[in-house]
Fold each of these.
Amino acid sequence: MKIYVTKDKKEMNQKAAEIILERIQEKPDMTLGLATGGTPEGTYDDLVNDHQQHGTSYQNITTFNLDEYVGLPSDDPNSYLSYMREHLFNHIDIPPEQTNLPNGTAEDLEAECDEYETRIHGHGGVDLQLLGIGENGHIGFNEPGTSFGSKTHIVELAESTREANARFFDSKDDVPTHAITMGIQTILKAKEIVLMISGERKQEALLRLLHGGVSEDFPASALKEHPNLTVIADEAAIENKSVVD
Ligand SMILES: N[C@@H]1[C@@H](O)[C@H](O)[C@@H](COP(=O)(O)O)O[C@@H]1O
């Protein structure tokens, strides 16, 4: 595991954008795994700025998002498809048919999960997966207790996750109860993983990731066994500097 500590969230986001841009330069038809939430917003802003200023092209890039809520129409402002359009897709030259998210309104959700998993691997897998982390250590929407062997599946969201995500909705009751998420095994198959961790609320999760054991009680600990993991944490996520020494 490689770890970078940045002064603040802005620098954390910039570092992740730099890594993504380097990989695009090396492989202009790469497959990018994308995440949502508050953490990567600044990274998407940086990619959009770079596209506008330096013209980095996404014409040959394919993206696969980690997850999507169940039951939100795709044009709902809180769907992850809307998030991705607002923060990235509408501002770069990626053809819409090369952007992939699970369909949370599919009639047969189980079949949708199988199809999404097959689509990812049929495409040759993810080259670089961008990740955030939940306060309880969830990655994607894989809550504590999820099998490390899991593939794309339907999950019931933990109350704490619905509470944490309520800030994007009018109230907690509006947060969907279920989501489709890549499984932990799906995520681990990415050739490279970049995990961003920002802010005081994530201190415990970072501490546990760096110093705890590998256990299904803490989904992010699965990442410790990945051969190409980069963690980018801002200073606010570090309670005590010695944790990264
Ligand atoms: N499904 C997403 C995750 O992909 C994200 O990493 C995490 C942290 O979110 P945030 O970055 O807003 O703290 O929770 C959400 O529920």
Note: The chain has a mean pLDDT of 96.
Amino acid sequence: MIKGKVIKNYNGYYYIDLDLPESLVECRRRGKLKQKILVGDEVEITVLDNHTGVIEQLLPRRNEIRRPGLANIDQMVVIMAAQSPAPNRFLVDKMLMTCEYAGIHPHLCLNKCDLDRTIAVAYRDFYESCGYKTLIVSAQTGEGMDELLSLLPHKMTAFAGPSGVGKSSLLSRILGRNDLTIGCVSSKIQRGRHTTRHSEIMKLDYKTYVVDTPGFSSLEFEHLDPKELFCLFPDMIPYFGNCRFSSCLHRTEPDCSVTRAVAEGKIKKERYETYCKVLTTILERKR
Ligand SMILES: Nc1nc2c(ncn2[C@@H]2O[C@H](COP(=O)(O)OP(=O)(O)OP(=O)(O)O)[C@@H](O)[C@H]2O)c(=O)[nH]1
Ligand SMILES: [Zn+2]
């Protein structure tokens, strides 16, 4: 059996990249294999002839997201625009939290810096000080593209962001700079707004993949235990654990190490506000 990666799932066929030259194999799955297979999954296959085969086994997943279904994402680039549409800190926070929840390492990318550099720099300074790598780019002028490209080798990188921020434009630039070794063309990412979108991984180079995540938005956090919410804010974690009450949710409780850190400016007020806002939603839904 040979190991490969599912890069596309279409009409019951799985397209497996074996990471060899010219090695895209069209596979069916073995009937007894009951688990759902996602794009991004690592599998073991039997090759039947030149380019067809059978998936025999699903290998363990490192992480997964549901909408769209994708597995084994090494990093997520959360894209916002510096302008049109205007960025929104609460939305950025929620997307970062969604990545943290899924166990995916996020970076932030401010596109359209040609339209408003001041906003882009303000976002970068803010999120870099929260510990997130933040890039300033322009798909239009090409500024910052080298730094973005330097993040990609030997990883599977997913791109997410609200509509209109320039995901397709950035991906086209990324793909245009590289030879695609398998039959995926960049026109595939220029689909219309209302067509059915399925995730398809595009291969840039050896072990280097990019994937758009249409429909990936922030998680609804209603199923999260209120006590776990804190773990989704890596910048706040160092101040956690010294509260008087072990049940502390860090709002109005006395002698709380988190609210103290906010008052001392060690935790950013805006991040703490996101925490409180999401916590309120979780608590209301639990009622
Ligand atoms: N000024 C400027 N415009 C840009 C830039 N990147 C993208 N745009 C424009 O922004 C608009 C939206 O870009 P898309 O690449 O379609 O955005 P998207 O995020 O893929 O949008 P959806 O397909 O709706 O998810 C287009 O008109 C692009 O030409 C940029 O860096 N600067
Ligand atoms: Zn507390």
Note: The CA atoms of residues 239 and 258 lie 6 Å apart.
